[in-house]
Write a structure and sequence with these properties.
CATH architecture: 2-Layer Sandwich
Number of strands: 5
CATH topology: Chloramphenicol Acetyltransferase
CATH class: Alpha Beta
Largest sheet: 3 strands, mixed
Number of domains: 1
Shape: globular
Distance between the termini: 23 Å
Order of helices and strands: EEHHHEHEE
Number of helices: 4
Strand order of the largest sheet: 2-1-3
Radius of gyration: 18 Å
Length: about 130
């Protein structure tokens, strides 16, 4: 299964690099080929192990894609395209109340309200962003 993973770019990748005072989102997108075969428990363990083996949270992919030599950029462009982009946003607790400046959207989390109106696609040529077509 080939998917593009999106990261927020605030992982501890380099020793001594402190991003705690920076503002913004450092999105990175990189492809990962996963093999979720076997029983559910075994498949989950296998995928988790495969994700742990991605060097530096996929940072090198973007470096080669945009700053690599012409041969490196051409090799990346020739890779097969993922059919989905995955971005884990974390867990939300129940701390939202009426006074909170931010609240979860009223629309359902399953995305049906948007999927009925448009089809989403993914393209690394769009720097990993999804776009409506």
């Amino acid at each position: 299964m080939l998917i593009d993973l999106e990261g927020h770019g605030r992982e501890d990748i380099f020793e001594g690099l402190d991003l705690s005072r920076t503002v913004g989102w450092f999105t990175s997108v990189f492809p990962v080929a996963l093999a979720p075969q076997g029983e559910l428990g075994d498949a989950l363990k296998r995928v988790k192990e495969q994700l742990r083996q991605v060097p530096r949270k996929g940072l090198g992919y973007g470096v080669f894609q945009y700053l690599g030599s012409p041969a490196q950029r051409q090799a990346i462009e020739a890779l097969p395209r993922a059919q989905a982009v995955f971005n884990y946003l974390g867990q939300f607790d129940g701390s939202f109340d009426e006074q909170a400046p931010w609240r979860p959207a009223a629309q359902g989390a399953d995305g049906r309200w948007a999927a009925m109106r448009r089809r989403r696609t993914s393209s690394r040529s769009m720097r990993g962003c999804t776009r409506a077509s």
